[in-house]
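fyi for ur records
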Amino acid sequence: VVTPASVQYYGFKRNRLRFSLKQGEVVFAVNFFNQPYLADKIELGATLAVFGKWYSAKASLNGMKVLAQVEDDLQPVYRLAQGISQASLVKVIKTAFDQGLDLLIEENLPQSLLDKYKLMSRCQAVRAMHFPKDLAEYKQALRRIKFEELFYFQMQLQMLKSENRVQGSGLVLNWSQEKVTAVKVSLPFALTQAQEKSLQEILTDMKSDHHMNRLLQGDVGSGKTVVAGLAMFAAVTAGYQAALMVPTEILAEQHFESLQNLFPNLKLALLTGSLKAAEKREVLETIAKGEADLIIGTHALIQDGVEYARLGLIIIDEQHRFGVGQRRILREKGDNPDVLMMTATPIPRTLAITAFGDMDVSIIDQMPAGRKPIVTRWIKHEQLPQVLTWLEGEIQKGSQAYVISPLIEESEALDLKNAIALSEELTTHFAGKAEVALLHGRMKSDEKDQIMQDFKERKTDILVSTTVIEVGVNVPNATVMI
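which gave:
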């Protein structure tokens, strides 16, 4: 605090408390309206944590809350469960440390590394993360924890690399240039340069004698599925089967339909957990006999009893949703088949090479031609009634909308409460005009799938959701997100 707090009165029971804060070299004004009692709590030279709304044009902050007057020692702030306060949780954790909790924390790095990189011990770091003596000690603790995370992450990558080397040469898939070109020409659209480049990188890997382990990254709608589909088709022209594993049944069905439309002359099989016993036996038989060229499914693809006749290519969509063990089991279903993993998560190339050091990376960084530009607008919450009126008009035109209730609260229970309240508010507002559905993380998988399926089939117009919306589900009519 660099200026004394002063209160200005204007009008009946209206006033403004004003003072200035300095953060680094920047000085800015802070205003609190109709809270004159705060003046006694704001001392010149004190260090405050203040929450409010920032106005860059005026270099001022309209305060909503003084979070804390920072004492000489740093105070921990925890994510809370419903029914417990910060003070109570701090007291419990402090008591645990005072009774020797940190002595139970075993060191997991060799002393030589601690000495070489000047790292504090693991038990010291854990205590300092909660109750540091000062900011410098907190930073040292954070450095130690982050070093440990990256160290073990890189160790896992090295193990994967060694595993790939031990496996030796990969399959040589001598795919037909003529047939692949013919299918590309028959597509109702032209591939973008980025799609073409990624496809050539994948096809070159498949024809080589080294084992392909490649990541294909591209935003939703960039055309990863077409590239993956052409790679699968190429594998079939070489006399092999290709399998595509996705995290949910709704995505499996979507990919199955897309690939069926792309390749009407190929035999496709869909394998998911919800198949009835007789249907499942029939599908397993077609896969084992080699009668199915392309196999699309969920984690059911790696279950016991699933045998492939000649598996040459594995594609895993949203690869981060599957563990290393699951991916390894699928790979072991064939004779060292090529592996292509896909993700819609934007990853800068340099980070991708670091995070996926055991993989080659292809990036589709272009959107197909003819896409309408995405319009993004920021609005104030008080403008919501106008937005809902506009949304009503969009729904009448045949559009659907996602309404996201973001995870911003201090507890999961409150996040869910917010989403439910928002859903009820919209249901009331759109009564008789639009169908509203709610999707959240506590629902069972089959329940989530059904809600997404209803939205996809236009049985609902507005989908209120926390951030659990399934990436990659194609809903062409959903043109609005709030």
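The CA atoms of residues 402 and 481 lie 5 Å apart. thats all i got for now
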